[in-house]
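Minutes, methods subgroup
Present: GH (chair), OT, SY

1. OT presented the first of two proteins processed in the latest run. Sequence and structure tokens recorded below as shown on screen.
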Amino acid sequence: MDVRTISDRLSVGPQLTPSDMAEVARLGFRAVICNRPDGEGPDQPTFEEVAAAAADYGLEARYLPIVAGKVSDEDATAFDAALTGLPGPVLAYCRTGTRSTTLWALSQADRLDLPRILRTAKDAGYDMGGVVRRIANGGKTPTDAPDACFEVVIVGGGAAGIAVAASLRKRQPRAQIAIIDPAETHYYQPGWTMVGGGIFDAKDTVRTMGSLIPAGVRWIKAAVAAFEPDADAVIVDGCRVIRYEHLIVCPGLKLDWHAIDGLVETLGRNGVTSNYRYDLAPYTWELVRGLDRGRAIFTQPQMPIKCAGAPQKAMYLSADAWRRRGVLSDIDITFATAGPSLFGVKDYVPALMEYVDRYGATLDFHHDLIAVDGPARVATFQVKAPNAAPTTVELEFDMLHVCPPQTAPDFIRVSPLVDESGWIDVDQATLRHRTHENIWALGDVTNTPNAKTAAAARVQAPVVATNVSADMNGRAPTAQYSGYGSCPLTVERGKIVLAEFGYGGTLMPTFPKAIIDGTRPSRAAWLLKEKILPPMYWQGMLKGREWLVQPETIDAE
């Protein structure tokens, strides 16, 4: 645990976990302050989880979440009040400790001289240089004196961001390119379903971000606070200004765990789990192995979500494990989805229904999870059936696998780049912004009507790279995206229904039907998912090797 002293009353540090609370108490702290919003990272415990553990050791806990790069005067005042009101000494934390230190620095601006604030922060290992200008400008960030300038700035270092950087680097080897992302780790999220099914090891789905940034691309390890497209500027941590000639936006989705009442208090215990979080996918497999009888519920919220088939993949793999152990007949399986159907593309439904019947699962359509009582093992759903008044139903469970509601990140939703629904507004073919011609987007945050999958990003990356390269050379876009997405539906251990489709649900198989018939479960598709796709991701997609994804050209009129 990395604890850094700021004053006799305050220390700061990076993300704390529930298991850290014993050590926090042993070190003599009497309170903790969380300055990191829940849901920033897939491996991040919620504040409620930390607070519950803190209470066990007699520690008070306060939640003052700050979006990275958006520390306001009011935030600093609230932090100062908390620091004064809580029993001390106090340990404040965020992702790295920078936000907590920034809050302290701003709260002390009228009490301590600037050199002392900067020196204290520096001694603790934090550079407050960005806050100097923030204070000097009364909290306003000028855009006429950028901290850095690049030909291309990419927001997001996930699958889409690194892939498009690698693809663009191939086309423009001399271009000055930067990726902005605060995360130190990068996850192969498509593998978490397999972790929850006992097939993959969680540690094999994670690598350091630094090892994946393409050679020649600058990594700005910071969080984006705001966009100023009229000034061709991105504002990041510490109110630093990054100027660009071309901007590519692809930060991924926010998992809104708080949208379900009581969920965050019980995640990871009481039989409640989710393959949508790195640290919880192993717990899914633990629950599956330990369940011999009772009810298992698998939920799916309103679209859009990452990989529309992932919630039912968890159900199929769990049911298959119970079948193999001979306990399936003693387990009542329910798939509760807020949607009106099992899968959005009808061609794949017959094969999926065969497995629903095989496992004896109950399908509850129009069921949206709204609350969880973990200790009582009760899940509450709002039911909105067509032509009927909304009702609520309660279902008891022994195991509950939750897919949380998902939105664009907050800094995207409040930006001038989005449409009325909060998604980045792009042309669905070229992926160019409809208003700002030097801005492009791909991945999960766009308003394109395609499945939000890693496979979609794999196809989108060379499209955006081709079109940005053309724009850099003064030409019009030359590549178009067809809406391709893929969802390998793991219906049992060893077989997959390989759903591949584009805009409008058009089937877009990669392989001839004689090799893989995507509408039927196959062993070949399983081998693709288990053996081929992971190395294709790490060594192909993230390296700019555009295997099987050459961009379609725009038809000349």
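2. SY then presented the second protein from the same run.
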Amino acid sequence: MCGIYITNIPFEKNEIVDKLKSIEFRGPDNLGYEKVNDLSFGHLRLSILDLDERSNQPYSFDHLKIVFNGEIYNFEDIKKELEALGYTFETTSDTEVLIKGYSEWGKEILPKLNGMFAFAIYDATNNTVFCARDRMGVKPFFYYWKDGDFEICSQLRPIVNAESKIAKEAVSIYLDCGYIPSPYSIIENVYKLPPGNYMEIDLAKKTKNISEFWNLKPVEIRDISYEEAKKELHELLIDAVKIRLQSDVPLGSFLSGGIDSALVSAIASKISKNPINTFTIGFEDPKFDESKVAAQFAEIIGSNHTETICGPNDALQMLSKFVKVYDEPFADSSALPSLLLNSVTKQYVTVALSGDGGDESFIGYWHLLLVEKFKKISFIPYPIRKLLNKFSWYKVLNTRPETIKGILGAKDENELIVRIFTSFDSLQKKQDLSWMKYYKIFKRLAKEPLQRAADLNIKLWLENDSNVKVDRASMASSVEVRSPFLDYRIIEFARTLPLKYRYNNGVTKKIVRDILSEYIPEKVFNQPKKGFAIPLGDWIRNELKKEIVENLNDEFLFSVPNLDIQKFKKQMSLHMENKYDYSFSIWKLFVLSKWYKEFNLKLS
């Protein structure tokens, strides 16, 4: 888990070192720099495997040089393959396996890799740079490109300079999503390499070409019994956890009150020869606190458990760190307790397992179930549903009017699915969803609307929200997080299962629950899930109110392109009066205001 950098722009060494030092938290164990021909390489190392300096980067083999961030979990298997072909190894790291694997197979190394990765390899013979990013987009990959000049980095901040300009289109997308999805970034001429893609740069011709090596496939449901499916999934999970336990530094596991982290921790506990370390964040507000359930899990699996209670002041103290680490506007407020959790975890371990990814594959998120609710009204002709929108159903159902209008006003399931992920109550004056062209694949992958919603969750939200939150929060404390549920084998396997194995009569993640019952009694884990969230709505009305009001002034609001200021002010007023919860809208704008101040850039 590291930070990578490579450029053909003729910066001085001290300039590149300063760039890397701005994100030094990604790899405090070594800062590496080399210049070869017209290319400058930089690397920040967080030592996990082979702690010796021989595995520092940039790393060379023959005519190749690599900078690599991540972990290749099956590197030992690939190493054996290469040894059979006559290769010898000087280190015990996955970096050496990766560069020698590329030397042997070229881009065909990518399907062999099981891991989280972002890397760039320079081939001095061909004068090319080959880059790739893992299937799920767990590891970040930013690049600047203009007329053949490029910079590649694990984070945005080192690429930003005084001449950088804010991309208006990206701001508009952020107003809907609360994050900026790939291939976009908040900065003009800076992009994200999409997950499961590789990029080839011809340095002589000053051209780049981006291609795909992995994506979700159209769903083909297997003819498999429930018991067979449960057995096969259990074996996959055990292996996914096992290969993520490889580490030359202390390792632990995050443990919430949810079933995914409980199952990961339970499997790890059974595999490990010694009791594992588990870590939980609790909240003073009982409506959000799962720490008592997590403590029960820890007692049953016999882990060394550390619990940290998060109050308003604890989370809000993370605000300045949040703005510096999440160097794009990012409105997932659970990033604050995530930062706190990782700062505590780092005191004990350097690597932590997590349960991220289980909800996407096994239908755990409540917002996916809106698709099921839509089925109940989809028989009503669209014109009649539009007419029904004129009635104040939200008062009867005690929910926000935008949500009801969004569901009733959707022409079909696909439009509803898009609205779930792009806001029922857009803050844009004119909503432009043309950027969704990069994610339209979800429409043709599955017959079942619920599966299509889960697929868009994987392609859009997982990469750009969940993985960003985990990567930046963990890296801020130099912690590496590994997520067994994000193993591509599990994601591919889950999509071949009948939906009823995963979601059945209102029971979410059924098959995962049944596997967990082999480790933890059902009566312990079968409790309402509260989610890893903070009481943001209350904090906005109280602890954060003064700062919110000061930041969201007219001068700032008028600087936000395409913002419906009148609509936002109405939402903010209703929230402060405690009539409706518009905390997400307010938080989005608040985070954007903090980002504006941090980077002090002009609009394009």
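Chair's summary of item 2: The chain has four domains: 2-212, 226-363+454-525, 366-450, 536-603.
Next meeting: continue with the remaining queue.
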